[in-house]
Amino acid sequence: xxxxxxxxxxxxxLFIGLAFVFAAVIGSFINxxxxxxxxxxxxxxxxxxxxxxEEYQSDAFKLLHQKKLLKPIDNxxxxxxxxxxxxxxxxxxxxxxxxxNLPIIGWLLLGGKCADCKQPISPRYPLxxxxxxxxxxxxxxxxGPTWQFALSAVLTFALIAxxxxxxxxxxxxxxxxxPFLWLGLAANYFGLFVxxxxxxxxxxxxxxxxxxxxxLFKLVTGKEGMGYGDFKLMALFGAWxxxxxxxLIILLSSAVxxxxxxxxxxxxxxxxxxxxxxxxxxxxxxxxxxxWGHDIVSWYLRGL
Length: 304
Description:
Layout: H1 2-10, H2 12-56, H3 58-66, H4 105-109, H5 124-143, H6 147-169, H7 174-189, H8 196-221, H9 228-241, H10 246-267, H11 279-303
């Protein structure tokens, strides 16, 4: 293994190319996660609601069952997870052949259409694959073949999935956020990114920073300005990057959110009261801080 890593160190272009291809393949799986995790969560919530009705309102629950008023929330197969069933066309439900499922290339070969029904396939699939490939290739260029690269690549895959789910569902699942918060603390137990003390304080401060803003906004306006998933996402970045990066992440995410929000209002006619997921902006800011946070802070301090 050490010889292989040494070889990769000697040929950085080869390493970056391998990282690009590998990440594109994982990007294909990220598309599956973005689509299927919310469905799995909704089914779990429905089962919990039905269990509650059965326990506390058994007569009403039995009546609903007898009249067949309790229906599934989707038309998907009963067994539905990240592996089963296989990928199908969302329109005609025909199985997607393995060579058509090749990252980026498969979509191009099909001309962006289903091989059977010829209905358009959303370009978001190859775009997410390309995004994963470019970001991880950038990590390979920045970190080289190190543990920092391996862990930051895994983190990047999770962040892309979180951003995609939040864009679709206004949801940041704990099933992804919390394990990666703990992974950040575990990585910094060995001091791979920041000292463990900074990571622990960062996780606490990251959560409390947006939690405080949430309650201040709610007390002033009576409305909820963000979700609890945003607090946990900030805690995640605090665990990975330390408390020192939190002000930068908050400033960058606010700036990115303001720019994109104003652009959508100007060019898409979006109303001011329309909810906007804040998670993707935190993801963008946090990923920038992961690579260039210290350089940005140093540049800013030199300018004071």
